[in-house]
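Priority: medium. Attachment 1 of 2:
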């Protein structure tokens, strides 16, 4: 496997958010900023200051590259912590605490990379939501692992074939920076018109 064959960890988050958005970003090379992406970029610029430190009994390292030959993943971590010999990834997000399956998948993908790199099992990770200043626990369960591995395969297929998934309108579309490029509601209307003709 060459470095070009590795899937960016962030692609799993994008695919779980919306397969069409993932295609636009990673196959078509399209990306447009909006308020939310700019806030996220600013947050990660602050977080990605390379370095290590100790906070009480916790060792922290920021902005290190993670890679898994087993799963064909690569990406930069926001923060890795170690307490009592246990490593866990922490992914920073701009929003408020919530139940976001795409963020949990990204944390799980980081845990898979850490396991591959260290040979140690990773039982949990966290998502830190900047607006609410809260960490949300992400247990690395067998079910989440299975979802992450299935998503890795789906993204690999997407990147290999380049086949564009059709846009599907959901409530997530309202915050998407690529909404004007995909126009999922317009696509739905065209499809309904074709079916009725």
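Attachment 2 of 2:
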């Amino acid at each position: 496997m060459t470095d070009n064959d590795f899937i960016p960890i962030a692609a799993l988050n994008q695919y779980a958010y919306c397969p069409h958005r993932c295609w636009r970003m990673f196959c078509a090379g399209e990306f447009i900023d909006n308020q939310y992406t700019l806030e996220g970029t600013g947050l990660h610029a602050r977080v990605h200051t390379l370095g290590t430190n100790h906070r009480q009994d916790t060792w922290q390292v920021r902005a290190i590259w993670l890679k898994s030959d087993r799963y064909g993943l690569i990406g930069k971590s926001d923060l890795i912590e170690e307490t009592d010999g246990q490593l866990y990834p922490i992914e920073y997000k701009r929003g408020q605490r919530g139940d976001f399956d795409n963020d949990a998948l990204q944390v799980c993908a980081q845990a898979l990379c850490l396991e591959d790199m260290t040979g140690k099992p990773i039982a949990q990770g966290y998502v830190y939501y900047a607006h609410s200043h809260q960490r949300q626990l992400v247990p690395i369960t067998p079910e989440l692992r299975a979802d992450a591995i299935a998503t890795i395969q789906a993204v690999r297929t997407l990147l290999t074939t380049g086949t564009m998934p059709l846009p599907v309108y959901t409530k997530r579309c309202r915050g998407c920076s690529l909404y004007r490029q995909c126009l999922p509601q317009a696509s739905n209307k065209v499809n309904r018109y074709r079916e009725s003709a």
